[in-house]
Write a structure and sequence with these properties.
Layout lengths: L1 E2 L3 H11 L14 E9 L9 E7 L2 H18 L6 E4 L2 E6 L4 H6 L9 E6 L2 E5 L2 H12 L8 H10 L14 H6 L1
Amino acid sequence: VINVSDVLTWHSAWAANFKVSTPIDNSLIPFLKGDISLATFYNNADPNDKMVLARLADKEGAVNLLNRKAEEIAKAKDDTVYYEQYADLKIGLIEEAEYPATVFGDPFSGFENTYFTTYENFLVLAPTVERIKRWLEDIDNDLIWSRSVEKSSFIENNLSETSFAVIYSNPWSWSLLKN
């Protein structure tokens, strides 16, 4: 989790200090506020099972920007934009490899395509629509850290004033550290 008070300043420093193999697209940054997270999920079938969560300062602006991007890409391919209604959310598709990496740099790579939606005041980006759906199902089934006494206590006691944290919660995570 990256928590920053000035996203524009942080983004400039981040892009300057981390490997960036594609040109950085700053257009989404003004719509973000505070927290940016990259979550990697344990999935033997898909090593790129991950998701980006970013707190939004302007939800409507971010969604409009992503919809325009999806429309531009679809139009260039003489295609239509993929949208799916799931629960009360609209999920869209940006058919462009590595879109999160173009916004946040190489640490956010591994997205063949980017599905997007918003949940409360967060932007959600994932490489598959199934990842977004599984995450939403976990929330509906209370399988989230804030509803776990053990995890909530850990967060409250250890992360309250942290501006950057890397958290490994499963034994399989050690393989991420080695790679």
